[in-house]
Task: structure prediction
Amino acid sequence: MQNLEEIQELQQTLKEDSSNFQARRRLAILLLDNGFSEDALKQLLFLSGIFPTDASLYYNLGIVYEKLKNLESAEKSYLKAIEFSPEETDFYYNLGLVYIDKEEYDKAIEAFNKVVKTDVDDANSYFNLGLCFTKKNEDELALNSFKKAAELNDRDIFAHFYLGNYYKKHGNIDLAIEKYNKVIEFCPDYSWAYFNLGAIDYEQGDFDGAVKNLQKTVELNPRDVEAYKIYCKILIKLNRLDEAQHLIRNSIKENMYEGDLYYVLAKVYKLQNDINGYEKGLKFALKNYKTLSFSPKAVKKELDDFTQARELK
Result:
């Protein structure tokens, strides 16, 4: 409320004196901070025309363009800011984030390396380097970057999470579990950590542990389709078909257009000898074919074979 009042006061000031550039700068920042990106853009463009070598104006323009999803203009603005003030690490950092969004990972790596060359304790830049190396499948470089990020900021849950992913991928399950538990220690509501622990339990045949972690996953994130699928597989293996049916039916309430869930439900109905439910499940799976990870052609054939067999009876 206070910021809105100040915005109104500054707007009035500029009506009375449009050459009050200090007031216009303050207004631009307040507009930016309070979500009025289009209005902030107008003020910053006006100011950059008056002060064409002011690096901070181009930096803030970059932020506005990022908020407006105009990545090309954001990149140009940050590069302009760097041209006039090449020692500012914040400019390189934000430029690196733009390159990540543009999936130009080599350029992003170059930008973040500029940051850590000056600020060797910038944990966020090391994390983003790890992310870029992960995208490039350069696992060892990613590992070193995530380790450095976690070393500098032990509470960086994302660094620990990606370290867990690395260790899981490379078969070091004990370290992976340690890292996912570290994530949960700092952020008990991080559903993906529970999911990955549940997946590890499932792969190791610890169904009780998997059920516990997957149940927590779907409580925290009812839209996690993969968690429901693994959870259901376990219940089927344990011959707890009524629970499996109840689980998937509830999951569909949260994910009405997920074809995979209807297909899994069809399989449960088939195991329960509920032929009508099986047929309906297949039909709804095909109706939502865009979200099927199973082959729609195979599901269609399954439905056709079922229909043909029933007609022959």
Observations:
- Residues 189 and 220 are 7 Å apart (CA to CA).
- The longest helix spans residues 296-312.
